[in-house]
């Protein structure tokens, strides 16, 4: 099988955790400092060598298409004003083809990926979920792609999570380990509290072989009444090896409020232009609070 060149980014979810902010705006457009969350994910794909991206959208997601489109008026305006640094910022995703397809019903992640099957055809491909942003020296997806090159098999990115949080994730039951790579006996989506086979959680980065579509074609609903990608991966694992890879890097959970706030604060603190000011501001806020408490 060839190289991984295509990626699917599912972005059809309704963003209920962020209502009312997401009533009229896609959750993928919520900014971390000055860039929408989805841009960090697109950038990871580009830096990993992906050439074509298909974003699976749904109702009310047009802002995503506008974001990655050219905006000539804005560009002209920035050129006139000599704001070339901003011009560069708004054209960051120019060197990748971005395609769109709509998921007509919210039937779950497995179904969203299945919607892109015709675009993928018979090639291995990547999936990146927008709820996870990963900061790593070598992009997370690239680490998985290298594992794919070695094994010619599907590879799923995992990291450890605290025991009490396993119910929120897809969890693997590891069989053997070689370096950071696991052979897996079982993939379980959102195990009930106290039943998780390990604390190694699927972190929204996947390399999959196209045979996954044979299983997604007939996948029944699973956890939460949705068609789950993890369930189809387990079926694939029974047909051909699917590895899990404990990737290097820090993963930020922007899919829930506290994680989103933490990400915003950390990214702002690490921002070259304003990190120092943000630190001062945070100190002021926290110390101010203490004064009020006394
Ligand atoms: C999805 C996947 C789950 C994975 C998680 C990572 O769940 O179904 O296996 O662990 O993303 O963020 P969701 O968070 O969409 O419910």
The CATH fourth-level homologous superfamily of the largest domain: Spore Coat Polysaccharide Biosynthesis Protein SpsA, Chain A
The helix-and-strand class reads alpha/beta
Distance between the termini: 66 Å
Percentage of residues in strands: 15-25%
Low-confidence stretches: none
**CATH C-level label of the largest domain:** Alpha Beta
Number of helices: 11
Overall shape: it is globular
Largest sheet report? 9 strands, mixed
Please estimate the helix content: 25-40%
The CATH topology of the largest domain, please?
Spore Coat Polysaccharide Biosynthesis Protein SpsA, Chain A
| Record field, number of beta strands | 13
Structural domain count: 2
Order of strands across the widest beta sheet? 5-4-1-6-11-8-12-10-9
Present as ligands are:
1-O-phosphono-alpha-D-glucopyranose
Mean pLDDT: 92
Tell me the CATH architecture of the largest domain: Alpha-Beta Complex
């Amino acid at each position: 099988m060839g190289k991984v060149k295509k990626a699917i980014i599912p972005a059809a979810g309704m963003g209920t955790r962020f209502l009312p902010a997401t009533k009229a705006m896609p959750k993928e457009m919520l900014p971390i400092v000055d860039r929408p969350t989805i841009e960090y994910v697109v950038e990871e794909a580009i830096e990993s060598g992906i050439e074509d991206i298909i974003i699976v959208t749904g109702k009310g997601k047009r802002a995503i298409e506008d974001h990655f489109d050219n905006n000539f008026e804005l560009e002209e305006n920035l050129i006139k004003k000599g704001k070339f640094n901003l011009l560069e910022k708004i054209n960051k995703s120019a060197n990748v083809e971005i395609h769109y397809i709509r998921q007509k019903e919210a039937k779950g992640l497995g179904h969203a990926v299945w919607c892109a099957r015709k675009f993928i055809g018979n090639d291995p491909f990547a999936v990146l979920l927008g709820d996870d942003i990963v900061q790593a020296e070598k992009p997370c997806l690239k680490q998985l792609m290298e594992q794919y090159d070695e094994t010619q098999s599907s590879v799923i990115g995992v990291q450890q999570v605290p025991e009490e949080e396993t119910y929120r994730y897809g969890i693997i039951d590891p069989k053997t380990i070689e370096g950071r790579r696991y052979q897996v006996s079982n993939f379980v989506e959102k195990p009930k509290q106290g039943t998780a086979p390990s604390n190694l959680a699927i972190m929204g980065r996947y390399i999959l072989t196209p045979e996954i579509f044979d299983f997604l074609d007939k996948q029944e609903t699973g956890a939460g009444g949705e068609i789950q990608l993890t369930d189809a991966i387990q079926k694939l694992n029974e047909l051909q090896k699917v590895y899990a890879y404990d990737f290097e890097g820090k993963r930020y959970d922007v899919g829930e409020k506290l994680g989103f706030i933490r990400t915003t604060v950390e990214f702002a603190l690490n921002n070259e232009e304003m990190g120092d000011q943000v630190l001062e501001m945070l100190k002021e806020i926290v110390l101010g609070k203490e004064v009020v408490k006394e």
